[in-house]
Amino acid sequence: MSLEARAAPSAARSGSDIRPELRDLFASFVVVAIMSALSWWLAGAPGTNGIDDAAITRSYADNIARGFGFVYNEGGEHVEGATSFLWVMILVIPYLFNDNPELAILSICAALTVCAIWLSLGLLRRMAGARGGQAVALACIAYVGLPGFFVWSVWSMMEIALWSALIMLLLDRLSLLLECPDPAVQSGWSLIAAAIALPLTRPEGVAVAVGLIGLALLLRPRTWRATGMALGATLASCAGLTIARLAYFGVPFPNTYYAKVSADQMQNVVDGAKYLISFIMGMPFAEVILLSWILFAGVMLTSVLRGPAAGHRSGLLVCATVFGLLLVYVALGGDHFTFWRFYQPLMPIFFFPLILGSLRLGSVASALPRASLLAAAATSLVTWIALSNLYYRQARFDVVKEYELSARGELFGEMMNDFTPSPSIGVVAAGGVALTFDGELRDLMGLNWVEMAHANPIKIGFRNHASFDVDTFWKYPPDVVAQFNKRECQSEQWSPTARFPSTGVSQLFSQPKFREIYAPVTIEGADGACANAFAARDWLAQAQGGRISELEWDGFSLEGDE
After folding, report:
1. Top-confidence residue, 158 or 501
2. CA-based angle 230:233:236, to the nearest 5?
3. Region 260-278: what's the mean pLDDT?
4. Is 562 helix (H, G, I), strand (E, B) or coil?
5. Contact 214/317 with Cβ under 8 angstroms?
6. Which of 3, 141, 401, 538 is least buried, going by the fewest C-beta atoms within 10 A?
């Protein structure tokens, strides 16, 4: 049967209709279990503590659970330094019962990842029609070539799993609306739930929801009741959250937006285009897969314009999702994390055109020996899996450093708790340290500090780390400037990392004023742990309780200095 002869879902599901869904759910559990273990092992067992940015979200959830409100510092200003409002609220729940609920958070991430895979398999089965079982089997094998998705979705503790699951849920519900003989039957609560949740999960969620729901209405006007309710729900959700933000924080967007996104829109587009190009050039076979999406979109659009068969509207909706998300993050400027974090939610559906095209090719190439077709398919899958996992393995150090950074921050916070008086600490990596340090933290990147985030609307420097402002620093100079981002503790010749010495925090280190007020120091823990920092001399003069050694500026050199 050709792809044009896909079966539309029936209004009333029989037992035989439900069994494929249960098989898909079981397959999703198996895929997530295998790939969670494989991605963690290939990355060198990076830890179970999540990355530093996830620790920021966890610190907000912890503070809310303990009754301090949406704050970074206990008793500090209201600031939304976690981009995903809904993810923070979800994490509050385990923090109500445990002050270190890592296992619970990882379990939530794994469950949401299972949902994302399950929904994507159901969508693929619907699009493949009579060959749905074969399509699902191919997809389950192909997922083995996506370790980057699973390390981000399951292990990072970021909102990736939630974001992916909600996008897949919206796609699945809209696809049912487009394919069902009676759209009213499929206008259930889950569509409304996805429409409400997406704007709460990320600021761009309203654009994703409005775009896809609007396209579904355009493709099938008969769905106007269901799509109209969904549009109203997503707009009401966005409006409600915006009003709440204005009332509580005084601004309409998360503070991370002001800290990361430049007011120079052209700069954002240029940076975002570089991000997309790096994805196409860097991810194995990305250029081939994107080419298949372009061809698939052309076929789907032509078919819809001529008079769609079952599955064609869903195909066009999925195409819009892929190209829409790619372009949204071009407009927002991309980011700096390894494995293109912003594009990971696309991975559950990323190779759909290749799977559907392979099935179509197999049906029209019946003259070829079956063994030859199977050998070609097996060779393609093995090549995809081997090269993708090899690339992931080679990039494991970029994965590990994100987890190590959070762990070093937690250790640094514990060491600094030994000192009296408790210092105020300026930090660049603001997550792990916030989970353990009991005193005041000042986020020099501005993610968790309103005034720093808003000081320079035009961002110049390392992507997402360009909000540091010298004048704001000197208005509120901290007692300690942490440098635990370095993997090794140095006690003699010290060279802190300075990727952008003229724009970031590192520009301070060569200033006479900074060298007069601060001294480079080594801080040691009771268990032999060690970290570097800069400490204000007046705080050093009265610091007690911890082990700290002052170094000489003569032994200091900034990396990149001639």
Report:
1. 158
2. 150
3. 82
4. coil
5. no
6. 538
- The pTM of the full predicted model, rounded to 2 decimals, is 0.87
174 and 207 fall within a common domain: yes
For residue 110, pLDDT over 80 is answered with yes
Structure tokens at 78: 């209201």
Q: Determine whether 323 is exposed, middle or buried from the number of CB atoms within 10 Å of its CB (0-12, 13-18, 19+).
A: middle
- The answer for residues whose C-beta is within 8 angstroms of residue 467's C-beta and 6 or more apart is 258, 259, 260, 445, 446, 447, 452, 453, 455, 456, 459
Same domain for 226 and 154: yes
User: Which of 394, 421, 446 corresponds to the end of one domain?
Assistant: 394
Distance CA 17, CA 12 (A): 9
Q: Which two tokens stand for residue 311?
A: 């599955």
User: What is the amino acid identity at position 29?
Assistant: F
Q: Which residues form the domain of 543?
A: 398-555
Cβ atoms of 317 and 171 closer than 8 Å: yes
Residue 128: phi and psi, rounded to 5, are -85, -10
Q: Are strands 480-482 and 518-524 parallel, antiparallel or unpaired?
A: unpaired
DSSP-based helix, strand, coil % in the chain, nearest 5 = 65, 5, 30
**321: β partners:** none
Provide the β-strand partners of residue 480.
425, 535
The H or E element spanning position 329 is helix 312-332
- State the DSSP H helix or E strand holding residue 90, giving kind and residue range, or none if neither: helix 85-95
d(CA 286, CA 273): 15
Angle of helix 189-201 versus helix 160-179 axis, rounded to 10: 140
Q: What six digits make up the tokens of 229?
A: 């309710």
3-state SS class at 208: helix
- Cα(68)–Cα(460) distance, rounded to whole angstroms? 34
- Reported as half-sphere exposure (CB side, CA atoms, 13 A), residue 474 has a value of 8
Q: What is the side-by-side strand order in the sheet with 530-536?
A: 441-443, 425-427, 480-482, 530-536, 518-524, 547-550
> Around Cβ 516, how many Cβ atoms within 10 Å?
10
The residue behind tokens 């979705």 is 153
Amino acid at 388: S
Distances (CA, A) of 244 to 59, 104, 238, 240, 259: 21, 28, 10, 6, 20
Q: Which amino acid is at 2?
A: S
Contact 409, 433 (CB under 8 A): yes
Task: Give the pLDDT confidence score for residue 363 in this predicted structure.
Answer: 64
